[in-house]
């Protein structure tokens, strides 16, 4: 991890009971991490380290913008990210991730590289759904999507594709009532 040397935190050599670090993660950082989902961005991360008798408390505050693909039109879009995260680090014999935000680092090394940890916190801060604001999507792609997207029950194109089947079977529920089966299921059954 030579390209991430500046993200090493020397825990063993801490003179005070707390330390303050600031990192600016830019396109170079995201490219170096080499994640297919996230390649560009500009995020400021503030890291406060507090030393106690048992462990070190690392508090991360991230704020900035990353570039992600729009779920609707597949064009790049800016996505604001903000997060506050905390992990604990203690010394042990070998590296270990013990869950509950606890990481064990070898005591003889006495340091931790926070590059990947910061990346994971930023990636987790990105919403599951990311789409442009209304009217900002790529017009060409939106036009193609709308061509195949059924937006209302009165859509003429979709009604022509799904015609009611007179021979549709009725489903019998546990109470003995018959509920009609959607005729589209019968069309799908024909494919089997």
Describe the structure.
By secondary structure, the protein is of the alpha+beta class. The chain has 2 domains: about 1-125, no CATH class; about 165-190, no CATH class. The protein has 5 helices and 10 strands, in the order ββαββββββαααββα. The chain has helices at about 25-35, 115-125, 140-150, 155-160, 185-190; strands spanning about 10, 20-25, 40-50, 55-70, 75-90, 95, 100-105, 110-115, 170, 180. The strands form 3 sheets. Strands 2-3-4-5-7-6 form a 6-stranded mixed β-sheet. It has a two-stranded antiparallel sheet with strand order 1-8. The chain is elongated. The chain starts with 7 loop residues before the first strand and ends with a helix. Mean pLDDT is about 85; it is low at about 155-170.
Give the DSSP E fraction (strand runs of 2 or more residues): 35-45%
Counted by DSSP, the helix tally is 5
Q: Percentage of helical residues? A: 10-25%
Count of the domains:
2
DSSP strand count: 10
SSE sequence, one letter per element: EEHEEEEEEHHHEEH
User: Which runs of at least 5 residues are low in confidence (pLDDT < 50)?
Assistant: 157-168
Mean pLDDT: 83
Our measurement of the CA-to-CA distance between the termini, rounded to an integer number of angstroms, reads 52 Å
Helix/strand/pairing category? alpha+beta
Q: Radius of gyration, rounded?
A: 27 Å
Q: How is the largest sheet built, in terms of strand order?
A: 2-3-4-5-7-6
Largest sheet: 6 strands, mixed
Shape estimate = elongated
């Amino acid at each position: 991890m030579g390209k991430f040397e500046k993200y090493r935190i020397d825990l063993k050599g801490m003179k005070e009971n707390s330390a303050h670090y600031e990192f600016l993660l830019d396109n170079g950082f995201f490219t170096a991490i080499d994640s297919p989902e996230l390649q560009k961005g500009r995020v400021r991360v503030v890291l406060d380290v507090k030393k106690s008798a048992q462990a070190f408390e690392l508090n991360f505050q991230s704020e900035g913008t990353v570039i992600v693909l729009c779920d609707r039109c597949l064009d790049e879009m800016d996505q604001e990210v903000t997060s506050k995260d905390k992990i604990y680090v203690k010394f042990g014999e070998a590296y270990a991730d013990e869950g509950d935000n606890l990481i064990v680092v070898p005591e003889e090394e006495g340091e931790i590289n926070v590059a990947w940890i910061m990346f994971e916190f930023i990636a987790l801060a990105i919403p599951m759904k990311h789409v442009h604001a209304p009217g900002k999507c790529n017009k060409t792609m939106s036009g193609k999507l709308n061509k195949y997207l059924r937006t209302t029950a009165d859509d003429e194109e979709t009604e022509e594709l799904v015609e009611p089947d007179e021979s549709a079977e009725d489903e019998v529920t546990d109470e003995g009532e018959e509920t009609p089966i959607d005729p589209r299921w019968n069309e799908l059954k024909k494919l089997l």
